[in-house]
Amino acid sequence: MSHIPYFGQETHAELDLWNQIIYALNGSCDSLEHQLSQHDAEHLQDHQPFLEYLDNEIFLCDGCGWWCETSEMSDSGQCYDCDPEEE
Fold first, then answer.
1. What is the distance between the alpha carbons of residues 52 and 58, in angstroms, rounded to a whole number?
2. What count of other Cβ atoms lies within 10 Å of the Cβ of residue 23?
3. DSSP state of 79
């Protein structure tokens, strides 16, 4: 996971929180809303810099519903396990 603040205004504590949420989601089928609640971070639900950071790190596969690292995304937008073109 990236730990480099590329938006410029986030503090280390904020980025640490963002990374904790991403770490908790990655490899799970948990909802973003649940993890935001677990981390007392519901305010991030519509926070564009956080959502962009999240999208650069992980994605929710439409096929299986699991969060995967962006490096595991096929051209179709699904994880490699779900993409029939990757077989």
1. 10
2. 14
3. B
